[in-house]
């Protein structure tokens, strides 16, 4: 087992390089920027459909209004993703541009949306009330057009890069206002991107007889089919957990490639459900509620196991501290506190539990009559509640939840017990060492005069405190004292993680610590990828461990803006979330 972990650690830089790939990062951040569309539209859909489940009939105008809001939000998801993906891809590309040359992210965003419409949408004429009308087929404006959105975004940004790098732009006299001059500079790259996508559209339609979006779906249909088999679901879940185990945020690597499949399947499940059928797709957006039941690694039951069955003080403390966050799918306190990341005892259950869960889910959907997930619920919804809602309140879903909780407990318990024994032995050794030291100190105290004992105590305690306060490298005691006095008045801190859950824990600790110490410090939590528009409003940005692999990219931005960037390691980060006053002290020590 140790050999496997050492091998994984050896290749961790490679996996981190994958997670920093600018294409995957743009897709992930672009989709994250559109999550309000997904969640808000789902609320209106739930309002329109769920009352009927319990026999409540809403007024038809209200149902029509809710459906309209859904169609004009989720129904244009593809167009919006094209824009947000292009915007985030532009930010990454600007870090690689020559000095003095910058791509206009507002222009690339609009150009990508126009290009996506050319690739995905079909225009035709039809007769209505005796008149000919020009009509757009809206089918691919939503989630069905996500692949076209990504292609349009990447083509657009590369065209802009080509033109701007070579000064292929319209230049106006310097007397012309900057905003107007920028619009003219963007004409050539904007036109180039739209023309290229228009040519691709014409070629594909004439050669294949289908729009570009349909071509991708046909070409990738074998992948869609394979992904929804037992091996496909297991592979997806195993890869997600595996990457997290080696310290790289697994969903950031795995999910961007399958999000179009998951969303399209969930939309199809919804249509089937509303038509009175059985939604049969198992690979859906909210399948993460099952595979990541309580967070990656299916850790929902683990804190309770730690509290009830473990004997070591460390694991019991971690269980108590993590039980509430894990219930809401924020399992970093458990991952880094136990720890589970790169812990050889935890590799097998961490990967296996989620794989077992998705396999059982597919069995229930295919053979027991449980609905495939149809509604979208927020990622932080407690998994049992989310599963019950998104299966349309089926009682069989509650049976399913009980079964996977039991299975996950069975999978984790023997490995936790083995790890617990190791920690108990270590704690016993430390207790024995402390006992010997205590006996020795008592002997010295009995044979030494009182003033000498007081002098010894006074000299030892500051040394220990100084050792505890050292942030990273060894520093002399006076330097530590100086750092503790640094001015943090009016400091604005932004904490970033993958989904704004883990970051909220530290942001709240900083707020609480500021209140305790009387410091004027403001802290906010955010998701990496949604920070670019607001980061210049902050003095310090803190990266949570799950997004630490983006440190170099973020450093380039923070250095340019004169912002201090901090990236604490896993256990250090979790310790700071539990120690508000310590979080303030840590900020002081790490300010230049």
Task: Describe this structure in a few short sentences.
The protein has 592 residues and is mainly α.
Give structural notes.
By secondary structure, the chain is mainly α. Helices cover 66% and strands 6% of the residues. The strands form two sheets. The protein has a four-stranded parallel beta sheet with strand order 4-3-5-6, with helices on both faces. Strand 5 (540-543), helix 24 (551-561) and strand 6 (564-566) form a beta-alpha-beta unit. The radius of gyration is 28 Å and the shape is globular.
Can you give keywords for this protein?
single chain, 592 residues, mainly alpha, 4-stranded parallel sheet, two-stranded antiparallel ribbon, 26 helices, 6 strands
Q: Numbering strands along the chain, what is their spatial order in the largest sheet? A: 4-3-5-6
Question: What radius of gyration results from the CA coordinates?
Answer: 28 Å
Number of strands: 6
Measure the end-to-end span.
42 Å
Structural class computed from helices and strand pairing: mainly alpha
Helix content: 55-70%
Low-confidence stretches: 441-445, 448-486
Layout of strands and helices, then pairs:
Elements: H1 2-10, H2 12-19, H3 22-33, H4 35-53, H5 60-71, H6 77-94, H7 105-120, E1 122-128, E2 131-137, H8 146-165, H9 178-185, H10 187-208, H11 212-227, H12 230-245, H13 250-274, H14 288-291, H15 302-309, H16 313-327, H17 332-337, H18 347-368, H19 383-390, H20 395-447, H21 450-469, H22 477-484, E3 491-497, H23 502-517, E4 521-527, E5 540-543, H24 551-561, E6 564-566, H25 570-578, H26 580-589
Parallel strand pairs: 3-4, 3-5, 5-6
Antiparallel strand pairs: 1-2
């Amino acid at each position: 087992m140790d050999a496997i972990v050492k091998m994984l650690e050896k290749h961790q830089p490679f996996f981190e390089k994958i997670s920093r790939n600018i294409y995957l990062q743009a897709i992930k951040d672009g989709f994250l920027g559109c999550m309000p569309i997904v969640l808000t539209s789902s609320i209106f859909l739930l309002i329109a459909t769920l009352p009927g489940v319990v026999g409540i009939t809403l007024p038809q105008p209200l149902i029509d209004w809710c459906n309209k809001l859904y169609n004009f939000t989720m129904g244009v998801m593809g167009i919006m993703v094209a824009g947000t993906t292009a915007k985030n891809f532009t930010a990454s590309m600007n870090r690689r541009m020559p000095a003095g040359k910058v791509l206009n992210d507002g222009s690339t965003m609009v150009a990508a949306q126009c290009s996506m419409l050319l690739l995905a949408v079909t225009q035709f004429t039809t007769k209505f009330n005796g008149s000919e009308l020009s009509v757009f087929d809206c089918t691919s404006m939503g989630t069905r057009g996500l692949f076209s959105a990504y292609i349009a975004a990447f083509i657009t940004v590369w065209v802009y890069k080509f033109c701007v790098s070579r000064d292929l732009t319209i230049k106006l006299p310097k007397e012309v206002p900057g905003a107007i001059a920028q619009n003219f500079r963007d004409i050539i790259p904007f036109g180039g991107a739209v023309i290229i996508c228009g040519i691709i559209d014409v070629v594909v339609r004439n050669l294949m007889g289908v729009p570009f979006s349909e071509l991708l779906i046909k070409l990738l249909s074998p992948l869609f089919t394979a992904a929804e088999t037992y091996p496909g679901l297991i592979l997806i879940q195993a890869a997600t957990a595996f990457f997290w185990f080696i310290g790289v945020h697994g969903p950031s690597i795995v999910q961007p490639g399958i999000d179009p499949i998951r969303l399209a399947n969930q939309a199809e499940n919804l249509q089937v459900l509303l038509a009175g059928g059985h939604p049969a797709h198992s690979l859906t957006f909210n399948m993460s509620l099952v595979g990541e039941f309580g967070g990656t690694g299916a850790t929902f039951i683990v804190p309770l196991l730690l509290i009830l069955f473990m004997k070591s003080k460390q694991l019991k403390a971690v269980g108590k501290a993590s039980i509430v966050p894990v219930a809401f799918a924020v399992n970093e306190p458990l991952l880094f506190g136990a720890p589970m990341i790169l812990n050889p005892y935890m590799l097998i259950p961490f990967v296996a539990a989620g794989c077992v869960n998705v396999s059982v889910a597919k069995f229930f959907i295919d053979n027991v009559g449980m609905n495939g997930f149809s509604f979208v619920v927020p990622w932080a919804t407690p998994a049992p509640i989310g599963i019950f809602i998104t299966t349309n309140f089926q009682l069989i879903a509650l049976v399913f939840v009980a079964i996977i909780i039991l299975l996950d407990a069975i999978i984790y318990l023997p490995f936790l017990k083995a790890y617990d024994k190791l920690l108990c032995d270590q704690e016993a050794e430390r207790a024995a060492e402390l006992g010997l030291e205590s006996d020795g100190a008592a002997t010295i105290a009995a044979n030494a005069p009182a003033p000498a004992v007081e002098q010894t105590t006074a000299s030892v305690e500051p040394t220990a405190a100084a050792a505890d306060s050292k942030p990273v490298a060894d520093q002399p005691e006076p330097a530590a004292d100086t750092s503790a006095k640094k001015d943090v008045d009016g400091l604005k801190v932004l904490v970033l993680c993958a989904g704004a859950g883990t970051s909220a824990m530290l942001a709240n600790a900083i707020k609480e610590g500021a209140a305790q110490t009387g410091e004027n410090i403001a802290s906010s939590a955010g998701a990496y990828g949604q920070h670019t528009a607001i980061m210049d409003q902050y003095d310090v940005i803190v990266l949570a461990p799950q997004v630490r692999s983006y440190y170099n990219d973020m450093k380039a931005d923070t250095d340019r803006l004169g912002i201090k960037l901090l990236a604490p390691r896993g256990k250090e980060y979790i310790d700071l979330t539990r120690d508000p006053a310590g979080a303030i002290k840590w900020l002081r020590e790490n300010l230049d």
